[in-house]
Amino acid sequence: MLVRFGACVGAILVFAGCGAGTQLDSSSTAVHVATALPPPDSTVVPIETAPYHIVPGDELVVSVFGASDLDRDGLVDGAGNFSMPLAGTIHVAGQTPQEVSAMIEDKLRGNYLKHPRVALNVKQSANQQTITVDGEVQQPGIYPVVGRMTLQQAIATAHGASQQANIRKVIVFRTVSNQKLAAMFDLKSIRSGQVADPQIYGNDIVVVGESAIQKFLKNAYLPFTALGRFIPVL
């Protein structure tokens, strides 16, 4: 039961004493224990480490500080253009959000605003790379992955953990070599800088809190070996 493995969770300790008192190691015949946090299958396009570049079909949200009537939420058209009040039509495809923000500021500066400040976010990416964030977060759902994303950023995308969340128990599900793997992370240790913030890839599933973990595992005991280490989900 999940209550049993949950009681054995340590900050960065190997699980031992759960179940029948056994511990997963290289002699295990039931599962293969990964020695590192692996990326997904090569068939899953990895998240680029370079800055995100806007593509046609992206949904953009533009906010102009101090001039909310100029805010805009819309799609980049097939030609790669985006329309803004007063700024007109801007070719944004191939540009980063920061570059487009600067372009909009230049068009608004002088005639309309003395010192325009523009924030641009990609609300929905047309590249279809998404993650699922479930469990004890403020807004569970499916979210686009824009640029390089870490576990902290993934949870922040869902507006953060809920008050009921146990942030020491965050599970990431991932497909590697056609196997469904899972690893548990201690978000508190990550936030304090004690543990590295792992990279999240498209198609990953992030689950925060025991209640959702129980749903995902269908009440099956999952013998995690160590935090941050992936093992197959049986």
Question: What global shape is seen?
Answer: elongated
Q: Biggest sheet, strands in spatial order?
A: 7-6-12-9-10-13
Average pLDDT for all residues: 74
Structural class: alpha+beta
Number of helices: 5
Rg estimate, integer Å: 21 Å
| Residues in helices, as a percent range | 10-25%
Question: Strand fraction band?
Answer: 25-35%
Low-confidence stretches: 1-36, 43-49
Order of helices and strands: HEEEEHEEEEHEEHEEHE
Q: Major sheet, described briefly? A: 6 strands, mixed
Q: Give the N-to-C terminal Cα separation.
A: 14 Å
- Number of β-strand runs: 13
Oligomer: single chain
Account of the protein in words:
By secondary structure, the protein is of the alpha+beta class. It contains 5 helices and 13 strands. It has helices spanning 2-6, 97-108, 151-157, 187-191, 210-217; strands spanning 59-64, 72-75, 81-84, 88-91, 118-124, 130-135, 141-144, 149-150, 170-176, 179-185, 199-200, 205-208, 231-232. The radius of gyration is 21 Å and the shape is elongated.
Task: Summarize this structure briefly.
The chain is of the alpha+beta class and 234 residues long.
Annotation keywords:
234 residues; alpha+beta; three-stranded antiparallel β-sheet; 13 strands; disordered N terminus
